[in-house]
Amino acid sequence: MARHRSHSVEFKRQVAQEYLGGETLHGLARRHDISRNLVRVWVEKYEAGAFDEDANAADLLQAYEARIAALERLVGKQALELEFLKGALRSGATPRNRPTSAITGPAVSPSPKAAG
What we know:
By secondary structure, the chain is an all-alpha fold.
């Protein structure tokens, strides 16, 4: 049964550079446990500049993942703040039948009849 492995862009670039530096297909394939045809494919892609695009895409993906993580932390923080403020509103709520206008002020409590 054939093995299916994925190799990093850096590894592919390294193998292609070793081949272009004078290493043989057979030697590279044996040392890295890959097929000679795969080395040929990687060399063609390296010469076409495909690995540069893949590296740029990987860098962009890493930047996006970092930005997403930062935004998720911010959303979590804001959710905690909202829950805290909702709790503060519930505990400090004033009855709705009391006037809240600064002009009318609070309701006056009845004075005792004996004062006087």
